[in-house]
Design goal:
The protein has about 90 residues and is an alpha+beta fold. The chain has one domain. Helices cover about 40% and strands about 20% of the residues. The protein has four helices and four strands. A four-stranded antiparallel β-sheet has the order 1-2-4-3. The chain starts with 7 loop residues before the first helix and ends in a 14-residue tail after the last helix.
Length: about 90
Amino acid sequence: MNKYGIDSTSKEQRTKEATYRQFVDGKVFLKINNILELYPVSKSTWWAGVASGRFPPSVKLGPRTTVWRAEDINVLLNNPSKGWSNTHQAVY
């Protein structure tokens, strides 16, 4: 603990979790950098895959915030050889 009574380890963990996930209306979203840690491709490859339908579609939360549904990324990670198809899209 530091002099302010804050445990730096738990603060770092909370910060990491906050940047890893964004909760909107109870749904979990992931940012591109976090996805690329789980699915190691370049950003340009990822965006090309999104455009071609190989990877899940993005969700715009604002003019400069693009995220992906965690459920959709889990489907992709569980079936990497099949890639993504529109039949996997989660219904909201």
